[in-house]
Every structure is written in C-alpha cells, then in structure tokens.
Amino acid sequence: MPFSDRQILKITFPVLLSLLMEQLIGLTDTAYLGRVGETELGAAALAGIFYLVIFMLGFGFSIGAQVLMARRNGEKDYRGIGPIFTQGMGFLLLLAALLFAASRLWAPRLLRLLIESDQVYAAAVSYLNWRVYGFFFSFAAAMFRAFYVATTRTRILTSNSVVMVLTNVVLNYMLIFGKCGFPALGIAGAAIASALSEGVSVLFFVLYTRLRTDHRRYGLFRWQGLDFPLLGRILGVSVWIMAQEGFAFFAWLFFFVAIEHLGERPLAVSNIVRSVSSFIFMFVNAFASTASSLVSNLIGAGQGSNVLALCRRMIRLCYLFVLPIVVLAFLFPEPVLRIYTDNTELIAASVASLRVMLTSFIICGPAIIYQFSVSGTGDTRAAMIIVTLTAAVYMAYTCLLAFGFRAGVALCWSADHVYYLVLLSSYLYLRSGRWVRKAI
Q1: Number of neighbouring beta carbons within 10 Å of residue 239
Q2: Dihedral angle at the C-alpha atoms of 238, 244, 248, 249, nearest 10 degrees?
Q3: What DSSP letter does each residue of 73-106 carry, written as one string?
C-alpha cells in the first residue's frame, strides 16, 4: 500500500482542521441567532441551505478540477496543473457573476413558494440578499482549496480557515448585535459577516500562494485567455459533480422545507440538529476528500489495484475519530445542545432528533468515502447517477413522513439513514472495476 496511516493522517489533518474552522462559522451563526429568536434561527437554516445548493454548483466544478489536478500530480506532470487551476478560476468567477444575478432576481420568488410562514420568509430573504455576495469569494476559495488538496499540500488550509473564522466571529458580534458603533442588523448582519469572512479567506490564499508557494513550478497565475478545449475537459469531469452536488443539497433543502411545514419549533430544532450533524460530518468529509484525491493520485501513478484497500483504510481511520464523538453526544445531549441555545424548552424538544441523527453516522462514513472515491476514479457520471438516485429516494421518504403521516421531527431525521444506505451502492460500483479504463 503506497500510503501509510501516518501519511494519510498527515494529509487529512489539515483538511480536517480547515473544515473544523469553517464549521465554526456555521456554529457561530447558529449560536448568535439562537439568542436573537427562533424565527431567525429557522430562517437562517433555510436561506443557508438555499445558498449552499447554489454554491455546490461551483464547489462541484472545483472538485472536478481537483480530480484532474490530482491525476496530473500522480503522473508528476506538474506543469499541467497550472492551466487547470487558472481556467477553473476564470470559469468559476464568471459562474459566480451569473448565479449572483440570478439569485438577486429570482431567489425571493422561489423562497416565497417554498416557505409557508411570513415571518420566516421575510427573515430568510433578508439573510439571502446579503449572503449571495459571498459567491465570488467562496468560488475562488474553493479553487485554491482544490489545488492544495490535489497536490497533497494541505497544511495551508488550516491557517486560512483560522483567519476566516476569527474574522467571522468578530464581525458577527459587531453586526448582529450592533457593537463597536455598528447598527444591530440581526440576521442580515450574520450574512454580511459570512460574506466578508470569505473575502478575507481569498485574500489570504492569494498572498500565501504568491509569497510562499513555488507557483512557477505549477504554472499558476499565467492567464492567457479562455482555453476552450481544456475547459471542455474540465467540464467533462466537473459537470457530473456539479449536478450530483446540486441534487444532494436540493434534497437537503427539500427536507428543511418539509420540516418548515410542520411548524417553526420543528424548524428551529432541525437547524440545531443540522449544525451538530455538520460538525461531525466534517470528519467524514475530511477523510472522504482525502480519499478522492489519493484515489486519483494512485490511478495516475498506475496503482489502481490499491483503490479498495485505500478506501477500507480511510473508513477505519474515519471511525476512530467519529464514533467517540457520536457516543459522547448521544449519552450527553443537553450540554451539546446548550452550545446553540439557552432556551430549555427548545433543548428538550431537540434531544430525540439529535439522537436519531447521531445513529446515522454508523453508515455515513463508508457511504461518503466510497461515493467520493467513485468521483476520484474520474467516472463522475457514475457518481452523479448514484447520488441522484439516493437523493430521489431520500426526498420520497421525507415527503411520506412529513406530508403523508405528519410525523414528528425526530422520526423525520431517520431520512439520513435511508440516504446513506442507498449511497452505499457506491461500493458495488468500485468493486465492479468498470472505472479502470477511465481516462481523464
């Protein structure tokens, strides 16, 4: 096996720490808004996921570029990495402008169709009107992250995320509550703080890459106009990831829309549970992202026979981190929930949903790692088909529970179990070996 546990952890830890820092942004928003009101808390969940559905189009493109850059890195074709990076960055900035304009024009109308409560709708629009400015920064940051993960030089991700989180914490405090001479903007302040923090993150990436990275080795920052043949190759891999991420997060948005129809309290409960879930999921995401990059590196180095062994090792390491957290949170839910709100009734109402969600992580790790590894092989079309099928089953199950049976919010969270069980079909595809002759 070309990668030892030590090497895997050395690559994964910076990714994990960067995700941890980024997760603190969501935790900070939830913790602050939980003290503003339940309406704002629920609205931030809906608007935030709506934002993520659109953001994942850009993020999916960056993951496709990451797969290509990792393949070139495995082939030791370092000069081939820079053109992928620059073409990807140009495309993402153009995409950000288009999505920004579309969101400003049509997002309020779409939210009006989805959200039943007038109060939640007004707060969600207030949040989203400012949050969409972050597309330009978050898309650019995603491309930098793809470059560093693809080249297995992930240590910078930690420092970048620390800077971003500290910026967000300070700006949230000032803008939500009106401190240091700023007006109290409430939920709009949280959106502005998040967008500005992403801007600081991009500035940090640019300065570090120019000053501390051998960018000439990779041919970075050499823009010579759009290279349509190369861009076509990137899109050939990325378009399926963009579609699969869009479907996956649309399914997540559908879940929260369904919960919103059960009432404002179930929506507030679900936002808190989502935040806890996202915190734990970042461990899974870190190992899955590393697995995707290492799979592509392995295939580029002519060692595709080691892919399944690598996946098994990634799952084992992932469990070592995830299961202790899950057990502790399951046994002691109140201290965890108290991080997000001081409302004792809301805490009591959230315990059952939290415990249901936590048990889904028994199957989450293998499911996500195998799914990311399918993308790492370069057969992103197959990964998209698997995710689309999974999202369709997930939404059907959610619809049956929320609209058919009007089930309680805790039972609705069992939809996560269904999602990950269907997603495990990724393993069957990897085992089939149909990806072996995929050239990218």
Answers
A1: 17
A2: 40
A3: HHTT-GGGHHHHHHHHHHHHHHHHHHHHHHHHHH
Tens digit of each residue's pLDDT (9 = 90 or more) over 294-347: 898 888 888 878 899 999 999 999 999 999 999 999 999 999 999 878 889 999
Cα separation of the two ends of the chain: 23
Task: Report yes or no on 250 lying in a domain.
Answer: yes
Q: Cβ contacts of residue 192 below 8 Å, gap of 6+? A: 130, 171, 175, 185
Which strand (E) or helix (H) includes residue 117?
none
440, part of any domain:
no
Q: Looking at the 3D structure of the chain, how many domains does it have? A: 1
Residue 437 domain flag: no
Q: Give the single-character DSSP code of 305.
A: G
List, for residues 351-369, the tens digit of each pLDDT value. 999 999 999 999 999 999 9
Q: Which residues contact 49 (CB under 8 A, 6 or more apart)?
A: 249, 252, 253, 256
Answer yes or no: is 438 within a domain.
no
| DSSP single-letter state for residue 304 | G
Compute and round to an integer the Cα radius of gyration of the chain. 21
- CB 131 within 8 Å of CB 195: yes
Domain that holds residue 24: 5-432
- Which pTM value belongs to this model? 0.76
In angstroms, the CA 177 to CA 185 distance is: 7
Q: Work out the angle at residue 183's Cα, subtended by the Cα atoms of residues 178 and 188, and round it to the nearest 5 degrees.
A: 85
